[in-house]
Amino acid sequence: MSITTCSPAETKSRHDAGAAHLIDVRTPAEHRALHAQGVTLVPLDQFDPTALKASVPAGKIIHLLCRSGGRATMAAQKLADAGCPCVVVEGGTDAWAAANLPVVCGKSAVSLERQVRIVAGMLVLIGVVLGFTVHPYWFGLSGFVGAGLTFAGITDTCMMGMLMAKCPWNR
Fold first, then answer.
1. Pure H helices in 17-69
2. CA distances (Å), 4 to each of 1, 32, 102, 106, 112, in order?
3. How far is 83 from 77, CA to CA, in rounded Å?
4. Which residues pair with 7 in a beta bridge?
5. pTM of the model
6. Residue 66 catalytic?
7. Which of 22-26, 68-72, 88-92, 93-97 comes out lowest in average pLDDT?
8. What is the average pLDDT across 128-152?
């Protein structure tokens, strides 16, 4: 089953017509900060395609949103593997808001992607500083982070992001 995409405006139109069930797969903190009106939160780290498939009202197609589309595509693949048709909203919540579609704003949060960049950068910096000042073995920390980022880029999965999604401030 292939993964299809659709624009935010088309998704909104389908939702208004009762044909779309909107699912946000971001972290609860990101969802609290800003989300599309009418969306249901199902964080990617708690995503159960079988349970979700069973909970969707008959006649509705699941439309998935995240911040920009990456996590929604991962969730869509899980749903496709479970035999459930779904649609990824192009550009995610960022595109939804940019299209001036209805959103709910709340307490601002640092996005998961930004948290990963901050932590990865800090780990690389710490590894370099400690490598020069304490022991050269600390350069291995920077190498490990670099290898992890390379793996994340190649596979489009981020273990650091998945771990950070479980942190208390992202709940």
1. 28-33, 49-55
2. 9, 27, 23, 30, 25
3. 10
4. none
5. 0.69
6. yes
7. 68-72
8. 95
CA distances from 73 to 85, 130, 131, 168 (A): 13, 38, 38, 25
Above 90 in pLDDT, residue 112? no
- C-alpha–C-alpha distance, residues 133 and 153, integer Å: 31
pLDDT at 32 over 80: yes
Count of structural domains, the chain? 2
Q: What pLDDT does 110 receive?
A: 79
pLDDT tier, 166 (very low <50, low <70, confident <90, very high otherwise)? confident
- From 85, 105, 125, the end of a domain falls on 105
* Number of other CB atoms surrounding residue 36 within 10 Å: 23
Q: Measure the CA–CA gap between 95 and 9, rounded to whole angstroms.
A: 9
Are 32 and 85 in a shared domain?
Answer: yes
Between 6-10, 45-49, 110-114, 127-131, the lowest mean confidence (pLDDT) is in 110-114
CA distance 139 to 127: 5
With contact defined as beta carbons under 8 Å apart, do 44 and 66 qualify? yes
The pLDDT of residue 169 is 81
Q: Which domain range does residue 157 map to?
A: 112-170
Among candidate residues 66, 84, 86, 158, the one labeled active-site is: 66
For residue 167, give both structure tokens. Answer: 């942190």
